[in-house]
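User: Teach me something about this protein's shape.
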Amino acid sequence: MAKIENTTVYPIKTPPSNDDYFVITDVEDSNATKNCKIGDISGSINIFETQVTVPSANILLIATNMFTLITGVPGKYIVPISILAKLNYGTVAYDFGVSDNIWLTTSNAGANGCAAILGSTLNNSADNTTIGTGKGLANGGFAAGESLVLWGVGGFSNPTQGDGTLTLSIQYRLVQII
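Assistant: First, the predicted structure itself:
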């Protein structure tokens, strides 16, 4: 049997998907060699990743309407680890004000959310992959069971134009405080 480091026999797959298999040693079954799915491993160590695309219709209403990114789980807090946002420019740039913040938050936390995207970064007339954000734990106001949302908290007006989409890649944990 070839060594795993032999990439000719075992080519590298980048990135692996949650449905790909992983070889493990089962210590609860006399060290038998078995396999499992990568998604099962990430779930057992409580690290999840999701990618959500926010349509332009929702971005145009973000100051007044929340957009759900991750649905709440009863009794658990959604704790973001890292967030990467990418603007996928359409044909018309948005016209957010320079001080408009779009928060990744919950309805209770409001502007105490875990991260913010400066609305003006969406005023680009090209795809933008440099919008990286992630502050870790929230400042306060999160409640167990709440959904993580994108929301233009703070009283600014919705943009009057724009047709691009926003794609967010979010790594997070589900935490239960006993």
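Now, about its shape. The mean pLDDT is 86. DSSP finds two helices and ten strands in the chain. If you'd like, I can walk through any region in more detail.
User: That's plenty for now, thanks!
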